[in-house]
Amino acid sequence: MAAKSPTVLVLGAGANIGQSVARTFASKGYKVALAARSIKANDSTADQLNIPSDFSNTDAVLDAFAKVKQVFGIPSVVIYNSSAVHFTPADDPFAISLADFTRDTTVNIHSAFVAAQQAVAGFAELPASAARTFIYTGNVLNVAVLPKFVSQGIGKSGAAHMIWAASAAYKDRGFKFYYADERKADGSPKYRIDGDAHAKLYWDLAHTETQLPWMQTFVQGEGYKEFNNLYQA
Fold first, then answer.
1. How would you classify the pairing of strands 223-224 and 215-219?
2. Other CB atoms within 10 A of residue 93 CB
3. Rounded to whole angstroms, how far apart are CA atoms 17 and 193?
4. Are 135 and 80 in contact (CB under 8 A)?
5. What HEC string does 126-190 produce?
6. Which CATH number fits domain 7-224: 3.40.630.30, 3.40.50.2300, 3.90.1150.10, 3.40.50.720?
7. Terminus of the chain with fewer CB atoms < 10 Å: N or C?
C-alpha cells in the first residue's frame, strides 16, 4: 500500500505567498488545503482543497481544520498567512474604531492562536517522522513602529510572542514554530515581499528536523539572516 501523502494547510491563501507555497508543496508530493475569503470551493481538485474562510471569525479556523482533516487527514504543516490592518493617521494611532481594532486583532492574533491550538492537537496524533511545523507569516512590526500600522503592529507583536513561547514549550515533542519576516539585505522592511522566497523558506523550515531560531528574518536569495532586531522607521 502506498504511503499517504502529507498535507499542508495554508490559512490566508492569497495570490502571492499562498499560491507560491501551494505550488512548492504540491510539486513535492503534498496534498494542499487553501483557506481564504476569495477562494472558491468548487475549484477544489483531488489534490487541492479550497475552503472559503474569513478569519475575522475564529470559528472559520475550526471549520477549516475540520474540513481538511475529513478530506485529506491531519495537516503536518500549518501556515498562518492571514493579516489585517486599518490604517491610522501617523500622528494619531488611536484614531481607529474599537470595531476595526477588534477585527484586526481577531485576524492577527485570535484566529492565529486557535490555529496553533488546532495544529498542536493534530501534531500530537502524527508520527515523529511528520514535519509537524507551524509557521506564522510576520513582518518587522514585532520589533519596529511604523506610522499608520498600530493595529497590525499590536497583532504581529502578540503573535511573535506566541510563536516564541510555543517554540520553547513544544521543542522536546518535536513540534516546530516559526515567525517569518522577509527583509531587505540591510535589515529594513521589505514591502513588496516575494512569494517564492517565502515558499522556499517554509519548505526548508518544515523539513529541518530540529527547531531553528523561532524568529526567521530572511532575505530573498540568501535565506535566514539575523539582524539587530530593533529597526527604527
1. antiparallel
2. 16
3. 8
4. yes
5. CCCCCCCEEEEECCHHHCCCCCCCHHHHHHHHHHHHHHHHHHHHCHHHCCEEEEEEEECCCCCEC
6. 3.40.50.720
7. N
156 included as an active-site residue: yes
**Residue 183 above 80 pLDDT?**
yes
Task: Tell me the pairing of strands 133-137 and 31-36.
Answer: unpaired
The domain ranges of the chain are 7-224
Catalytic residue selected from 31, 67, 148, 156: 156
The residue ranges of DSSP E strands in the chain, in sequence order, are 7-11, 31-36, 48-52, 77-80, 133-137, 176-183, 215-219, 223-224
What's the pLDDT tens digit per position in 109-153?
999 999 999 999 999 999 999 999 999 999 999 998 888 999 999
Instruction: Tell the residue number behind the cell numbers 518535536, with chain if given.
Output: 174
Task: Give CA–CA dist 67/150, Å, rounded.
Answer: 34
Angle subtended by helix axes 195-206 and 17-27, to nearest 10: 50
Calculate ∠ Cα 130-135-137, nearest 5°: 160
Q: How many CB atoms lie within 10 A of CB 231?
A: 17
Inter-residue contact 213 to 160 (CB < 8 Å): no
